[in-house]
Write a structure and sequence with these properties.
Blueprint lengths: L1 H45 L1 H5 L29 H19 L4 E9 L2 E11 L12 H10 L12 E8 L1
Antiparallel strand pairs: 1-2, 2-3
């Protein structure tokens, strides 16, 4: 009886350790996504004319970045336009996404009141390796994650993890 109790205890501790390791990695991905969203927010605040022109808008369906993005160059090397700087910012941000998260993508929309951009919504999405389509998960977990994702990133299999940040100007 004592051997049975001890073996059940060891199994429980092993399961707890595996779960803790998985959630630790998920937490690491979420922290990286937060840093990357803040990075783009800072870039957008520094180049407000390009935000007003819509140069930072990224509205696509979820398509994980599978190769290192090329960094565009400016027509005049010493005098980039706001749109060229925005293209460089987006490419560098996507490169950072590619380097920091598994199968990432980004989504950015702006909120315009009158003729002025007052806020931007930034989503960072990635495929969490511990959440595969074959894994049995609680439906409530999937539903909560879908609420965090932008249109075009929902109801996918596997469902990407999404982090949402609102940037005010």
């Amino acid at each position: 009886v004592a051997l049975l109790v001890v073996s059940l205890g060891v199994l429980a501790v092993t399961g707890l350790q595996a779960t803790a390791a998985r959630y630790g990695k998920t937490s690491e991905f979420r922290a990286m996504a937060t840093l990357l969203a803040s990075d783009l927010a800072d870039r957008m605040r520094a180049n407000k004319p390009a935000v007003d022109a819509g140069s930072y808008t990224l509205t696509n369906d979820f398509a994980p970045i599978d190769d290192v993005p090329e960094i565009p160059t400016c027509a005049i090397a010493t005098a980039c336009t706001e749109a060229e700087l925005a293209a460089i910012d987006i490419a560098e941000w996507k490169r950072a996404l590619f380097s920091g998260l598994p199968s990432p993508d980004g989504y950015v929309v702006t909120e315009v009141i009158g003729a002025k951009v007052v806020a931007a919504d930034v989503w960072v999405a990635w495929l969490d390796p511990s959440a595969s389509s074959n894994e049995t998960k609680a439906d409530s977990d999937d539903d909560e994650n879908k609420k965090e994702c932008p249109p075009g990133f929902r109801d996918l299999d596997p469902q990407p993890r999404c982090l949402y940040v609102r940037v005010g100007f």
